[in-house]
Amino acid sequence: MIPTKLSICIATLNRGAFIGQTLESIVSQVTDEVEIVIVDGASTDNTPEVVASFAARFPRLNYVRLPQKGGVDRDYDRTVVAAQGEYCWLMSDDDLLKPGALAAVLAAAAGGYSLIVVNAEVRGPDMVEVVEPSRLTLAADRVYPPAAAEQLLADTATYMSFIGAVVIRREVWLSRERERYFGLEFIHMGVIHQAPLPGAALALAHPWIIIRHGNAQWTTRYFKIWMFNWPELIWSFDHYSTAARRAVVPHEPWRRPKILLTLKAKGSLTPRDYETTLAQRLAGPRRWLVKLLAHTPGCLVNLPVLLFFRWRHADQLYALREFRDSPYFWRACLRRWTRRP
Q1: CA torsion angle for 130, 132, 137, 141 (degrees, to 10)?
Q2: Largest distance between two CA atoms of the chain
Q3: pLDDT category of residue 217 using cuts at 50, 70 and 90
Q4: Domains, the chain, ordered by start
Q5: Which of 188, 163, 109, 113 is nearest to 143 (CA)?
Q6: What is the pLDDT of residue 126?
Q7: Whether the model pTM is above 0.90
Q8: CA–CA separation, 65 and 84 (whole Å)
Q9: How far apart are CA 99 and CA 91, in angstroms?
């Protein structure tokens, strides 16, 4: 029997409409060195039936259905614990692998790296329009020895908030602290960066993943995740320099008016966001200014911020798409206004 080299590890919840496409893109290129592990956090849709149809085609698919929702971090950890492979690819449940992706990752795994970062392109929800051809702007594959851990963080951390980018040696994952990161939505970053990796990391320049933009399940928690969970995680890595961490995210981004204005334009910073996360942290004139921004109709904010951003950062295609996908984009606002009785 051929040893399992790579486990595709997927945590899922109510993705019956998408996980079939994801599995098709994987099963169509698996080899005898590959298995698939799926942990289902008690889906109430047709996810079990969709997965069962692929298990009938691919016997090395291990499907674990939980009696109740466990949370994305805990469920990804469960996939790795259940896996048998030397490497675990923490694949998302609604994105696709390009043809040749598994062969490329298996070839990279032969190099014995502790971590492989797989690049991706971004497409619209229909998976046709290319929003951004490459999330990592690398001219060629790049190796990061353990001594270059800060450069790895600076170069890849923002992109690696996307868990599907991560292929990690299973023994590295299991040897590290994981429970402290449950509930943050970014367990993989905590595992990778809590201490120097024992071996080198490799970033693949070619985009082997297709990300389905605008389909995240955490949009209602966007403000808390990006203003608190993410920066608090990055700044908890105190073995990195202040400069390296600041290159990823400011320590307290919620104190910066420009960032708050940008989030408002993207559809976040609602009155509820203000009351639950900022009201007790701010004081004086700043508190009232932020409260005013939170209560300002987003349709008045999106267009001027989008035009300014396009003027200053026309090359940041992913961010520009977030402005266009906002519920405050002028077309969305116009549709709502014209539907009013």
Answers
A1: -30
A2: 69
A3: low
A4: 6-212 (3.90.550.10), 229-339 (no CATH)
A5: 113
A6: 86
A7: yes
A8: 18
A9: 15
pLDDT in tens, 224-277: 999 999 999 999 999 999 999 999 999 999 999 999 999 999 999 999 999 999
Distance CA 12, CA 217 (A): 11
Angle at CA 112, nearest 5°, toward 109 and 117?
55
Q: CB pairs under 8 A, 24+ apart, for 324-327?
A: 325/213, 325/214, 325/267, 326/265, 326/266, 326/267, 326/298, 326/302, 327/267, 327/298
CB neighbours of residue 297 within 10 Å:
10
Query: Phi and psi for 2 in degrees, rounded to 5?
Result: -75, 130
Task: Give residue 125's pLDDT band: very low, low, confident or very high (50, 70, 90).
Answer: confident
Residue that has been written with the tokens 């797989």 in this structure:
118
What is the DSSP track for 168-209? Answer: EEHHHHHTS--GGGTTSS-HHHHHHHSS--SS-EEEEEEEEE
Q: What is the pLDDT of residues 9-26, one digit of tens each?
A: 999 999 999 999 999 999
Amino acid at 189: M
- The residue type found at 144 is Y
Question: Which candidate, 159, 157, 176, 11, places its Cα nearest to that of 82?
Answer: 11
